[in-house]
Amino acid sequence: MISLGIYEKALPNNLSWRDTFELVKKLKFNFLEFSIDESDEKLARLEWTRDERASFRNDMWETGIRINTMMLSGHRRFPLGSQDKNIRNKSLEMMQKAIDLAIDLGIRNIQMAGYDVFYEDKSVNSRELYVENLAKCVNMAEEKGVMLSIETMDDPFINSLTEIAHYKTQVRSPWLQSYPDLGNLTAWPENDVAKELENNIANIAAVHLKDTLPVTSTSKGKFKNVSFGEGTVDFEGCLRTLKRLGYSGGLTIEMWCGSEENAIEQVMKAKLFFDQLFNTIGIVQEPVNDV
């Protein structure tokens, strides 16, 4: 049995939290994935007051919808490997606040974007700074009992589970795991997706469901807004592999249609796509709480 979630940015962005959670339940998802991206609006969530956090928790509790994962993509703007010490300090401060927020909201897993830097030039030094600060982040998480999971990215720095496994040899901790994005894994031609899953199943804490178009000699690929079934991800093969390997964690449908008028329709279409695959493969979704 698996739990199926939906990324916050897939849902209409003009709803209250209560209405958002009610919609998640109505659409038959088990959980919502929470976003702390690089925008000022989302970063401000790290400063929520005690009352704001309590109100959010109450909405979750009363609707019966939980949040399994926090997507902490704010490190794109404030990367761990930046040449600027002030930015690196900001990245560490952001992580500590994200961990504290996760504890208050009942979130057990924080997804880290696998970038050393995003808007700066990469170098051996940016890589080293990333590893040094990754270790600091993991120490913070260990102290509070929160999982950190590095996502396979749309960037060559960490684009495979093999790469994440290597960094786990540099920062050894049970609180540092991997968060494969099936779309990102598939888009990089050097990845044998099935072997990536097989060789690293013990480190997988969560999985993103997203379709992509591949990186080629003439294309940078397309990593966002590819409709399910129109990209090159072999979802049936990947899900069969995960089932055989005994994976029973969360699967999150990742979409960014929340600002579009037909957002709910798009999400329903995506849910049907995976419902049909689950039925074909024999994957059972956790029943949706009817609280």
From TrEMBL:
Record-linked Pfam families: AP_endonuc_2 (PF01261)
UniProt organism field: Paucilactobacillus oligofermentans DSM 15707 = LMG 22743
Q: Name one GO molecular function term.
A: L-ribulose-5-phosphate 3-epimerase activity
A Gene Ontology annotation in the biological process aspect, one of them, is:
L-ascorbic acid metabolic process
The record ties this protein, via SUPFAM superfamilies, to: Xylose isomerase-like
Please report the name of this protein according to its UniProt entry. L-ribulose-5-phosphate 3-epimerase
List the keywords (alphabetical): Isomerase
Q: Where is the Xylose isomerase-like TIM barrel domain?
A: 21-266
Q: Which InterPro entries would you find in this protein's record?
A: L-Ru-5P_3-Epase, Sugar_Epim/Isomerase, Xyl_isomerase-like_sf, Xyl_isomerase-like_TIM-brl
